[in-house]
Backbone:
């Protein structure tokens, strides 16, 4: 450990690892953006990164070090002995962009990471702070990449054609000259595959689920939170136990019952089942919120002659609008994303929900850009809702202790 | 005044409050009982029944009628045919009868001995039908001018059929074959091991990755909100959309990841990520981690932000290094939420079905208990065996729940 805690060891080690991280990142990013051949070289990345790290520690003149590093890395990359190796056929533009991105990113970020690292022996603080800054940088890149790549691939695949996809699976660049033809998969989904209907079906089912859930959960939550009755504590604890029951275990008897009674393939059946899967969590979230409201306000209402139900309607509910918004959003999300029950209970294409419709697209005859376009259609509304109302949503997710 | 004492027992006010409480809870209790408790009981019942997917369609007495003959002028002869059939090939229907209305202007010449005709109303009692029973009943008729004019045909009025059939679901046949079948063979051990691997590593992985993400965002800077929203995407998006995105990304023939790996020289030939043992199991576990780290991240972040900042300042003054602060201050503070999250996530990962079903369909060594329910019930069409697996799952969950209830009371905040 103490060997590591010397400026001339820490600097090059962190520099080398950081160069490796960045060259992999730039190679992956450039590959996905242009489809051309970029490849990080592990040994050269470590070598040049180490040298740059040592130089940064030695020079201690950040501006000078930065400019020097940029120039050297760009030159090395273009000479093909840099951290980033380029294929023969790579265009000049892509070469220069890749090299500049890597060099610029590296130079700008390395100096702050190695801030306070001096050539001699280091204190524990400076050393660990530098390591943490390195890990933080790595973390941002890592998480952003793992979250973004699947969604990026989803959107870009939906805009391409089958032949383009087979030709170069890495080429996600978009030919803007195709104009509205880019959205052909979407047009076909809406025109030939009834996705308009599915979208409406999903929307209505989700909204209905929200209302039914609230109608059941609000009185229940109020009773558990405010009224005294025998078994109150046991009740509030056992609500969550319902979530311990896996959906597939319930889905089997429900499937049988619906088959026998002819409720399969009907909205009534779906709308009967969905709310019950969401009522317990809604009840749990709401009772937590109701407990937090000052009971004096309600007591004042009672003293003034309101009945309990009137108190709930006129005092408690207006006060808990933010919580109701969170719960509604959360329930909407569960109903919108629900797959298992829709898959098992709906066979009739005119009654599909979006998730069921996408499942039907998963066949070898249907090109996969259609599958991805369908996925985008299902994802965009829920994401838009989420981004607009992020505050409520995050609160809802945290408060609900959340079903998985 | 000597015997004044506070009232004991429940007064009328308290009673009224309790009544109101139960009244308010009643809709929820009823709904949950119908959709959760009833199916759970049904699972136990079905698990000891020899029931297959085909048994769900009750045997049906099918009657099709038509009229045959050259009908051009009044007085022409024709035959009304009733084609009768038992739709089931292996179960009988008892006491079948049907009734029908003969259209106006059709004169019935004679009827089968099992049938009677009253005005225009035909009633037939056909007795018991064996499995796969078929018969054609013909009734000779003569048509009059009214029939030719009004255009009402015999098939326009549907025949009403009645009959009783016994269903495997409700009769008294019981069997332990379902359990014998699922417990026999190495398959069951493999399913258990796969479930255990998936659950344990999926849970721990999601917790650790979530902890790392929370540490990253536990400081305020510009764009923190955006990043926080972004990191929740995997959880918020519909599972079917992200599962298919992963499948396409890791496709062995035209997937981007394989192309990338080949280009970077890490592999010579394409890797079938979701089709090879044991890689497929590792991949579905990684998918689980990817999809659920946002949840742990959100909870851990919420807990971190409620830790008092003074403590860290004091530690800083005492010369504790950042790692020491994390290990000796943050970790003990987070242990509560981490253990609750572990328990919850453990159970939910154990229950997870959609993800594996969509990614591999339970092939290539990824069949967990929940996927096995579907596999037995629908792929092998043996509903009884599926229910038996469900009973096993339920038993495991009961055990977990005992632990859960013991710990949840400690962390009331969740």
Residues:
């Amino acid at each position: 450990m103490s060997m590591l805690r010397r400026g001339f060891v820490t600097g090059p080690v962190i520099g080398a690892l950081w160069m490796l991280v960045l060259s992999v990142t730039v190679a992956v990013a450039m590959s996905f953006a242009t489809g051309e051949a970029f490849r990080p070289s592990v040994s050269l990345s470590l070598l040049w990164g180490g040298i740059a790290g040592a130089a940064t520690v030695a020079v201690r003149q950040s501006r000078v070090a930065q400019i020097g590093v940029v120039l050297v890395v760009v030159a090395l990359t273009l000479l093909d002995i840099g951290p980033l190796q380029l294929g023969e056929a790579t265009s000049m533009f892509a070469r220069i962009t890749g090299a500049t991105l890597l060099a610029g990113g590296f130079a700008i970020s390395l100096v702050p990471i190695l801030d306070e690292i001096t050539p001699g022996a280091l204190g524990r603080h400076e050393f660990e702070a530098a390591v943490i800054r390195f890990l933080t940088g790595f973390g941002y890149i890592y998480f952003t990449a793992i979250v973004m790549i699947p969604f990026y691939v989803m959107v870009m695949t939906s805009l391409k054609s089958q032949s383009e996809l087979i030709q170069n699976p890495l080429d996600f660049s978009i030919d803007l000259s195709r104009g509205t033809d880019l959205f052909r998969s979407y047009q076909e989904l809406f025109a030939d595959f009834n996705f308009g209907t599915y979208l409406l079906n999903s929307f209505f089912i989700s909204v209905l689920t929200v209302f039914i859930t609230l109608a059941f959960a609000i009185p229940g939550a109020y009773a558990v939170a405010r009224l005294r009755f025998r078994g109150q504590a046991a009740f509030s604890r056992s609500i969550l136990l319902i979530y311990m029951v896996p959906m597939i275990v319930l889905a089997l008897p429900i499937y049988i019952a619906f088959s026998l009674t002819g409720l399969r393939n009907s909205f009534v059946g779906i709308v009967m089942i969905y709310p019950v899967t969401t009522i317990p969590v809604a009840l749990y979230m709401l009772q937590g919120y109701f407990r937090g409201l000052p009971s004096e306000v309600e007591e004042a209402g009672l003293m003034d002659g309101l009945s309990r139900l009137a108190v709930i309607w006129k005092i408690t509910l207006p006060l808990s609008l933010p919580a109701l918004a969170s719960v509604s959003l959360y329930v909407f999300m569960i109903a919108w994303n629900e797959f298992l029950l829709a898959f098992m209970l709906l066979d009739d294409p005119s009654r599909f929900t979006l998730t069921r419709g996408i499942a039907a697209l998963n066949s070898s005859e249907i090109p996969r850009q259609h599958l991805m376009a369908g996925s985008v259609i299902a994802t965009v509304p829920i994401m838009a809702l989420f981004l607009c109302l992020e505050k409520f949503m995050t609160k809802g997710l945290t408060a609900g202790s959340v079903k998985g | 005044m000597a015997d004044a004492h506070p009232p004991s027992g429940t007064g009328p006010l308290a009673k009224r409050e309790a009544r109101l409480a139960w009244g308010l809870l009643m809709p929820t209790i009823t709904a949950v009982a119908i959709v959760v408790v009833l199916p759970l009981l049904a699972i136990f019942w079905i698990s000891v029944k020899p029931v297959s997917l085909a048994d769900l369609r009750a045997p049906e007495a099918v009657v099709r009628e038509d009229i045959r003959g050259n009908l051009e002028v009044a007085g022409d002869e024709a035959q009304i045919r009733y084609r009768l059939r038992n739709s089931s090939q292996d179960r009988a229907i008892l006491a079948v009868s049907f009734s029908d209305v003969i259209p106006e202007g059709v004169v019935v010449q004679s009827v089968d001995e099992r049938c009677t005709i009253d005005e225009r109303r035909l009633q037939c009692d056909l007795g018991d039908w064996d499995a796969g029973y078929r018969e054609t009943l013909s009734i000779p008729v003569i048509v009059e001018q009214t029939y030719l004019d009004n255009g009402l045909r015999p098939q326009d009025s549907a025949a009403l059929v009645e009959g009783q059939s016994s269903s495997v679901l409700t009769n008294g046949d019981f069997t332990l074959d379902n359990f014998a079948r699922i417990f026999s063979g190495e398959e069951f051990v493999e399913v258990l091991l796969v479930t255990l691997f998936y659950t344990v590593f999926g849970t721990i992985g999601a917790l650790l990755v979530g902890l790392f993400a929370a540490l990253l965002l536990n400081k305020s800077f510009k764009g923190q909100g955006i990043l926080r929203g972004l990191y929740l995407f995997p959880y918020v998006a519909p599972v079917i959309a992200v599962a298919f995105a992963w499948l396409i990304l890791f496709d062995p023939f035209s997937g981007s990841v394989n192309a990338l790996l080949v280009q970077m020289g890490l592999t010579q030939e394409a890797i079938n990520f979701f089709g090879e043992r044991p890689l497929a199991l590792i991949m579905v576990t990684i998918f689980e981690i990817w999809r659920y780290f946002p949840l742990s991240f959100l909870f851990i972040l919420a807990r971190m932000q409620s830790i008092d900042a003074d403590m860290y300042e004091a530690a800083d003054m005492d010369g504790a290094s950042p790692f020491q602060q994390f290990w000796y201050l943050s970790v003990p503070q987070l242990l509560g939420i981490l253990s609750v999250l572990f328990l919850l996530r453990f159970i939910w990962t154990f229950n997870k079905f959609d993800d594996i079903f969509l990614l591999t369909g339970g092939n290539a060594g990824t069949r967990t208990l929940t996927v096995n329910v579907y596999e037995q019930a629908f792929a092998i069409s043996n509903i009884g065996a599926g229910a038996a697996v469900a009973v096993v799952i339920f038993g495991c969950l009961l055990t977990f729940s005992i632990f859960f209830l013991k710990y949840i009371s400690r962390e009331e905040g969740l």
The longest strand of chain A covers residues 38-40. Residues 124-158 of chain A form the longest helix (35 residues).
